[in-house]
Amino acid sequence: MASNRIVSRGIDKIEWSDDLLLNMKAEDDDHREMFALMNGIFSAALLGADMVTQAVADLCLFTREHFSQEQHEMEQVAYPDRDSHRYDHEYLIFQLDVLIERLMNSGPDYVADELVDLLKRWLCDHILTFDAAFAAFRQEMMQEE
What is the CATH number of the domain that holds 81? Predict the structure, then answer.
C-alpha cells in the first residue's frame, strides 16, 4: 500500500509528507489538519481515556465536515466518479464508528494501534487515489474554462 511508503509513524506521531499534496489549497489544508488531529490522539493517550475519546471525536467531526464539503463540490461539478468516492467516505465513517464503539467499551489501549493503522492507511490511500483523481478532474475543468 502506498501509505506505508509516504507516511511514517514515529513513536508519538504520524508524519505528513508533501507527496500527499493535491495542489488544491483547501483540500491540502484539510488533510494536514486531519494529520494534526490524528497526532492529537497520540498526545491524548498520555492524558487518559477521556482525552482520547475527545480527540477521536474531534477527528470524526472534522472528517465528516470535510467529507460533506467535498461531496458538495463533487455534486456541483457533476464529478462522474462521485458515487464511488462518496462510498469510500461512508466506509471510513462506518469503520470509525465501529472503532469508537470499541473504544468506549474497551478503552484506548485495546484499539489504539488499530485506529492509527486504519487512519494512516485509509487517509493516505484515499488521498492518493480518490482525492487525487477528483483534484485532477477539477484542474482539467479549470483549464477548459
Answer: 1.20.120.50
Averaged over 51-60, what is the pLDDT? 86
Structurally, the chain folds into a number of domains equal to 1
- Asked whether residue 56 is assigned to any structural domain, the reply reads yes
Is the model's pLDDT at 67 over the cut of 50?
yes
Q: Are 130 and 115 in contact (CB under 8 A)?
A: no
Domain containing 54 equals 21-144
**Please, is 76 exposed, middle or buried when counting C-beta atoms within 10 Å of its C-beta (0-12, 13-18, 19+)?**
exposed
Any domain includes 12 = no
pLDDT at residue 63 tops 60: yes
Residue 25 within a domain: yes
Q: Of 84, 39, 37, 45, give the one whose Cα is nearest residue 65.
A: 37
Q: Which is nearest to 138 in space by CA: 82, 79, 65, 88?
A: 79
Lowest mean pLDDT among 6-20, 24-38, 111-125: 6-20
